[in-house]
């Protein structure tokens, strides 16, 4: 671990082919002597702290998918807990909170793909990784439907490649796999419970079913310390995937447009929603549980435990934005999705002592506040995070260069 804490190693970058601009930005990182900085105050993160957060200080942690919505929240929480965080970065996303808030300067960056076992093994060994959070995925169902091959490559092959790398090098003590309620597929009865069959049919759903089964196989066949989290629809400030229900609804109402209410040919969709800060608590709780081998190969559901229709969510947001008089635009979904989803969270409550701290209303209140602030700053020509993006990126480059 001592080599990990030396500043020159902390900002090391393992290269692979990526965009010229990203290569230029992180290129100086390899020889950086910039001291490791503790996480800055994170006003966007929840005040509630996990009971196990003190155990992360000085621990070497790898996060895949760190540039994504949930991954960026998890990365910042881990940094705030004192962990030494490494990330796998396969794509350059300049609007990602990871870049925009300068978080990328506080982690060890490994540039490459989660489907490359040799690359992953090198990253795990170089930073003496103790704990892995695997969040890298094609996460949008529509995108997965349009690109099934890429979805199976990232979501399924990416998972077994990471697990194989962990098996080959040994020494990784905790592996947490991000999954979804979509892995269950269409069930004859709700709520989903963890021992139900995994029967996803659409590309995204099936990719998660496969990844879960493979993860369980590695846990049971090779004793890998794996836990799987099957999450409902995660939402919250910082999610800039504007095709998703909540950010899309807020943005349209902010612009004076009618919100889009997607329905199927069979009627209303319903989902089980979870605020992102509660999801981060869930990831930390799963990792902590893996101190006991009895937890290896366990899967847990995480959500609010309550089913909400799309209409109800739109109505809540409209009320919060004083736009209850605006009638939604009804749009039929272009492809089949699971009609209704609800998760039982009893197992996580009992075994992990986890419970969601946000109701749908309170979570939407904080989310709407975040988006309105973001959109207001963007409309005024300011960087939504409070500093011009060019200056922010230059600051990151200076951290690497010095």
Account of the protein in words:
This protein is α/β, with parallel strands linked by helices and 402 residues long. The protein has one domain (2-236, 274-306, 342-360, 385-401): 3-Layer(aba) Sandwich (Rossmann fold), CATH 3.40.50. Helices cover 41% and strands 14% of the residues. The chain has 15 helices and 14 strands. The strands form 4 sheets. Strands 1-4-3-2-5-6-7-12 form an 8-stranded parallel sheet, with helices on both faces. Strands 8-11 form a two-stranded parallel ribbon. Helix 8 runs parallel beside helix 9 (203-222), helix 10 runs parallel beside helix 12 (310-320) and helix 10 packs across helix 14 (360-379). The radius of gyration is 21 Å and the shape is globular.
Write the layout of secondary structure elements.
Elements: H1 2-5, H2 7-10, E1 13-14, H3 20-26, E2 60-64, H4 69-80, E3 84-89, H5 97-100, E4 108-111, H6 117-126, E5 131-134, H7 141-146, H8 148-169, E6 174-180, H9 203-222, E7 226-231, E8 233-235, H10 245-254, E9 260-263, E10 270-271, E11 273-275, H11 276-289, E12 298-302, E13 308-309, H12 310-320, E14 329-332, H13 346-352, H14 360-379, H15 389-401
Parallel strand pairs: 1-4, 2-3, 2-5, 3-4, 5-6, 6-7, 7-12, 8-11, 9-14
Antiparallel strand pairs: 10-13
């Amino acid at each position: 671990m001592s080599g990990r804490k030396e500043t020159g190693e902390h900002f090391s970058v393992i290269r692979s082919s990526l965009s010229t601009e990203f290569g230029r930005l992180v290129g100086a990182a390899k020889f950086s002597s910039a001291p490791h900085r503790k996480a800055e105050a994170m006003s966007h993160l929840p005040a509630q702290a996990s009971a196990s957060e003190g155990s992360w200080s000085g621990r070497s942690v790898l996060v895949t998918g760190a540039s994504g919505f949930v991954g960026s929240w998890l990365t910042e929480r881990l940094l705030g807990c004192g962990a030494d965080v490494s990330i796998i970065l396969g794509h350059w996303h300049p609007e990602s909170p990871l870049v925009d808030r300068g978080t990328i300067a506080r982690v060890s960056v490994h540039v490459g793909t989660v489907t490359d076992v040799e690359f992953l093994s090198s990253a795990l060994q170089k930073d003496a990784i103790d704990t892995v959070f695997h969040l890298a995925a094609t996460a949008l169902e529509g995108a997965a439907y349009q690109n099934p091959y890429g979805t199976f490559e990232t979501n399924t092959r990416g998972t077994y490649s990471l697990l194989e790398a962990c098996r080959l090098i040994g020494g990784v003590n905790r592996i947490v796999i991000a999954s979804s309620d979509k892995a269950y597929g269409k069930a004859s009865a709700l709520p989903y419970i963890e021992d139900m069959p995994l029967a996803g049919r659409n590309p995204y759903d099936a990719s998660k079913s496969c990844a879960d089964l493979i993860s369980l196989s590695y846990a049971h066949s090779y004793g890998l310390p794996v836990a799987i989290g099957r999450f409902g629809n995660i939402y919250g400030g910082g999610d800039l995937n504007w095709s998703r229900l909540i950010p899309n609804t807020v943005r349209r109402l902010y612009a004076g447009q009618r919100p889009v209410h997607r329905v199927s040919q069979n009627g209303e969709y319903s989902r089980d929603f979870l605020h992102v800060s509660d999801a981060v608590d869930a990831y930390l709780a799963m990792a902590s549980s893996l101190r006991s081998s009895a937890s290896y190969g366990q899967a847990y559901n995480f959500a609010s435990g309550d089913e909400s229709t799309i209409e109800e969510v739109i109505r809540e947001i409209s009320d919060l934005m004083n736009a209850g008089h605006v009638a939604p635009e009804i749009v039929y979904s272009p492809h089949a999705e699971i009609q209704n989803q609800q998760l039982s969270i009893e197992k996580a409550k009992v075994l992990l002592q986890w419970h969601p701290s946000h109701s749908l209303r309170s979570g939407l209140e904080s989310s709407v506040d975040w988006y309105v602030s973001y959109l207001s700053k963007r409309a005024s020509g300011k960087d939504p995070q409070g500093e011009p993006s060019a200056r922010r990126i230059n600051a990151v480059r200076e951290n690497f260069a010095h």
